[in-house]
């Protein structure tokens, strides 16, 4: 839904297999002559004429304003940019230009940035505009010629990557992975036998930590490139061995890849009331993924102010939240019910029964006789996976959350919202390919063992088109994330102080 009305050629080619793209041909209804002018998708606030309008009324049409003119002016409503549509006196519906009285068409916010004084430090509209201006100054122009050049060179790079065999999986690497998994699980059983419950939990947590990387590969159909085979591999790993739903993860993760770092749309950065990586979460945004308001209530106001200090402690408990999200997905039947994936839910439910039988009953209940031992085993095994959650958030939390409009190309947006983490090659097994997130977001289906080689090609592409390539060491990346969390926390404190002062004066309103 996030690509309705847009040319999504690059997104579709990046995320879908050849078989899936061939299946899409059955739904083709026509071809477009010439270039396509992108519109804002309806899920993001775009408005279009009803399909059933009479022929004589079809002169009513949309007039799109070029992004190069409107991206800065119409962006005061935040990210993404909601270009409102109005009906002029001659009956033509138009998108308002940057000079028009622009107000958000979205119901995501209880605060209208246009009613705020942008000269004040607490003004959300001013913060938003500064982020947009900073990105416009830092990245290539949004004019069609520049963006088309980026797209053509991105596609040419994809052809070169394919020609060099980087889409081909190195199965010997997975043999090494299998040896690592077997060793960790075996050490868990040995230490469990000798009643070393905390140490046993440590090995189990490390086992889960490593398994996630291969489940991620399978979810992107990046191992065998067969949808069915990779799905079976992914479900066995995620559900049967890890207790997490691969289907939930794919539903969540695919949206993340399309609308990366969009506060209203990307579930991977929607962690209210605990974390806010943008001041826009202060506006009680509506999540289009979760289909609910993310309230900036009293608890959120407190937590966000101190999120810099709560970041690591909360991530140690992250796996428990993944159980909740997995069961919500499976029990509510949020996955596909028809088509080639109809059976996934039932296979996953069988996997969940299997997991809780061997882990919950077989180990925690039957093999550990004391409450303290059980508690130590469960907490250590789950908390040791915290570095994985740090790795996942590291690549995006410090990057831009601004939306530069519908004409920004897919490769530029991915590189603007994602960063790589630099590490020596011998440490790749610790990061599991997640340290190459910028490269992965450009080409999600490249097997992770080939991402280091691909990164060199992507860096050359970035130099050629003038897009900054964000890459930090692990320590520096953590500093960047903590810096962003601290910055947003300070903004929350300023907002709270302004609201308190206005309330004391009797001047406080919802705006």
Distance between the termini: 31 Å
The total of helices stands at 20
Structural class estimated from helices and strands: mainly alpha
Q: Report the sheet with the most strands, covering strand number, pairing sense and barrel closure.
A: 2 strands, antiparallel
Poorly predicted runs: 58-122
What does this protein look like?
This protein is mainly alpha-helical and 511 residues long. The protein has 20 helices and six strands. It has helices spanning 9-15, 18-24, 67-70, 124-138, 144-163, 171-193, 197-219, 227-241, 246-258, 298-305, 307-315, 318-331, 344-365, 371-383, 386-397, 410-417, 428-431, 437-442, 451-465, 474-505; strands at residues 85-87, 93-95, 286-287, 292-293, 420-422, 471-473. Strands 1-2 form a two-stranded antiparallel ribbon. Strand 1 and strand 2 (93-95) form a beta hairpin. Helix 7 (197-219) runs antiparallel to helix 8. The chain is globular, with a radius of gyration of 24 Å. The relative contact order is 0.12. The model is unreliable at 58-122 (pLDDT under 50).
